[in-house]
Amino acid sequence: MTRMTIALPDDLADRIKAAGGDNVSAWMQRAARDALLREEVAAVSAFERRTSDPDWDAEREQEWAA
């Protein structure tokens, strides 16, 4: 496992310590994973908006209704 050192403003560090309790490292790992997942979901969503066919759903509904 890689160790990292980060600099945080005192108020943010205090809030993280309070939220993380006895295991700040595990809390930070979850927070980092969650942030990365949100970024990935946003990227996929943006890609879908750029490349999707707005008529696709309507066409599928017509096909399935037949």
Describe the structure.
By secondary structure, the protein is an all-alpha fold. 74% of the residues lie in helices and 0% in strands. It is built from three helices and no strands. It has helices spanning 10-20, 24-51, 56-65. The longest helix is centred in the middle third of the chain and has 28 residues, at 24-51. The mean pLDDT is 93.
Q: Give me the number of helical elements.
A: 3
Average predicted confidence as pLDDT? 93
Low-confidence stretches: none
Number of strands: 0
> What is the overall shape?
elongated
Largest sheet: none
What fraction strand?
A: under 5%
Structural class: mainly alpha
Percentage of helical residues?
over 70%
Query: From the alpha-carbon coordinates, what is the Rg to the nearest angstrom?
Result: 21 Å
Secondary-structure element order, N to C:
HHH
**Measured distance between first and last alpha carbons:** 56 Å
Features:
single chain; 66 residues; mainly alpha; 3 helices; elongated
Lay out the secondary structure.
Elements: H1 10-20, H2 24-51, H3 56-65
Helix pairs in contact: 1-2
